[in-house]
Amino acid sequence: MIELDGVTVRYAGADESALRDVDLRIATGETVALVGASGSGKTTLLRLLDALLLPSEGTVRVDGMDTSDPQNLWEVRRRVGLIFQNPDNQIVSTTVERELAFGMENLGVPPVEIARRVEEAVARFRLGDLRDREPHRLSGGEKQRVAIAAVLSMEPSCVALDEPTSLLDASGRSEVWQTLAGLSAERDRTVVHVTQFPDEILLAGRAVVLDRGAIVFDGTPESLFARGDDLARWGLEPPAAARLAGVLRDGGLRIPDGIASLDALADAVVATGDGGPA
Amino acid sequence: MTIALDSVTVEYDRDLPTARSALRSIDLVFDVGGATAVMGSTGSGKTTLLEVAAGLRSPDAGSARLDGDDSPASLRSAVGLVYQFPESQFFEETVAADVGFGPRQTGVTDAEIDERVAESLSRAGLDPGVFGPRSPISLSAGEKRRAAIACILALERPFLLLDEPTAGLDPVSRRRVVELVEAEKESGRSVVLVTHDPEIADRLAERVVVLRDGEVAAEGSPERIFGDGALADAVGLSLPPRYELVRRIALRSAERARLVAGILDVPEPWPPGPA
Question: Is the pLDDT of residue B275 over 80?
Answer without folding.
Answer: no
